[in-house]
Amino acid sequence: MQFETRAIHSGQEPDPTTGAVVPPIYQTSTYKQDGVGGLRGGYEYSRSANPTRSALEECVAALEGGRRGLAFASGLAAEDTLLRSICGPGDHAVIPGDAYGGTYRAFAKVHERWGLDFTPAAGHDVDAFRAAMQPGRTKVVWVETPTNPLLGIADIAAIAQVAHDNDALLVVDNTFASPYLQQPLALGADVVVHSTTKYMGGHSDVVGGALVLADDGLAEQVAFNQNAMGAVAGPFDCWLVLRGIRTLGVRMDRHCANAERVVDMLTAHPKVAEVFYPGLSDHAGHDVAVKQMKAFGGMVSFRVVGGEEEAVAVCNRASLFTLGESLGGVESLIEHPGRMTHASVAGSPLEVPGDLVRLSVGIEAVDDLLEDLRQALG
Ligand SMILES: Cc1ncc(COP(=O)(O)O)c(C=O)c1O
Question: Is 198 an active-site residue?
């Protein structure tokens, strides 16, 4: 089955009891047993498993081409459960030199205290990742591509090779691309991470996370910790993400088309100093993006002529582009990473430029979006 068909059908057979076409929200914590240990359908307690969550987990696994999907309360909950499953005190991780600020914060402020050492790779290229490896100690290589917020591109297949040459696992945060545009497991990654809050949910109405694993043994280990640590997604949140996934393909097509028009306008605008978008032929990762992505996504960042205060003023003047954190919803968002999503990396090697503005280009009529951006740029 092709992607769009899997998005609508995987894990989503009509309900066997009622025939309901949409998987019901099983808003229950526990399940009646037919005699001690007599479970109906294998469900005993909703931290361990819940049918609405199972539907989402099956669907996400099918979309990423993995053996098993696991749904969490947030993207960071998924990251945390994964890291605690694959790393321990004394281990080392290599992370991107430009990553979501919350991911960096989890490494720097949480896991480092528990003995997980890490090195940010000095660029997105394979050499930077190779140079950061510590043979024997590096257990995980973490890649985000495209990166948040600078839209850097990492070569997944090449970095998988570097990781595996050193007996490390490759984890890819696929939040920006979504499985519609890029499927890291097919390129050699071991685990895919999602903030399903973003394109998967797609409507800015739910916070969630997911992992998809390529190996049954590793999946078993992480699933054990999902239950043992308990950061699971609730049934209604799973239902919302699953509903969003059904339209992922058509939404992504429109996000990409609108983003390309926005990029065309920004690159020609006198108030814009630099545009970051992997679809631009002069973007450092363009050739790799062409190789591993179906299209270039709906996220665009740019630097504003006039520095940080002017970048903040552009964000404040925007009106149809809503000033807010997060991304990947149907509505367009604008934000100032330095003071908002990436404030947590200030003073670190991952600090972002102060004159940077990030757009999550939505699926509204593109002419309205262009008009709003032009007035915001002044
Ligand atoms: C690329 C990326 N990964 C992970 C996360 C964390 O996800 P969540 O906010 O759902 O915990 C985010 C959140 O913005 C993100 O942008």
Answer: yes
| Calpha distance 253→259 (Å, rounded) | 10
Answer yes or no: are the C-beta atoms of 202 and 171 closer than 8 Å. no
pTM of the model: 0.97
Are 195 and 290 members of one domain?
no
pLDDT digits (tens, 9 = 90+) for 11-65: 999 998 899 999 999 999 999 999 998 998 889 999 999 999 999 999 999 999 9
Q: Of 104, 174, 178, 197, which is best to mutate to test ligand 1, by the most ligand atoms within 8 angstroms of its C-beta?
A: 197
173 is catalytic: yes
The number of residues making up the chain comes to 378
pLDDT value of residue 363: 98
226 and 272 part of one domain: no
Atom number in ligand 1 closest to CA 99? 1
Domain shared by 198 and 342, yes or no:
no
User: Measuring CA to CA, how many Å separate 38 from each of 33, 42, 49, 63, 165?
Assistant: 5, 9, 16, 33, 47
Residue minimizing CA distance to atom 14 of ligand 1: 326
Give yes or no: residues 241 and 252 share one domain. no
Which residue ranges in the chain fall short of pLDDT 70? none
Q: Which helix (H) or strand (E) holds 243?
A: helix 235-245
Does residue 173's CB lie within 6 angstroms of at least one atom of ligand 1? yes
Q: Please tell me if the CB atom of residue 144 comes closer than 6 angstroms to any atom of ligand 1.
A: yes
Tell me if 201 CB under 6 Å of ligand 1: no
Annotated catalytic residue 100: yes
Q: How many whole angstroms from 343 Cα to the centroid of ligand 1? A: 14
The total of structural domains in the chain comes to 2
78 with 129, same domain: the answer is yes
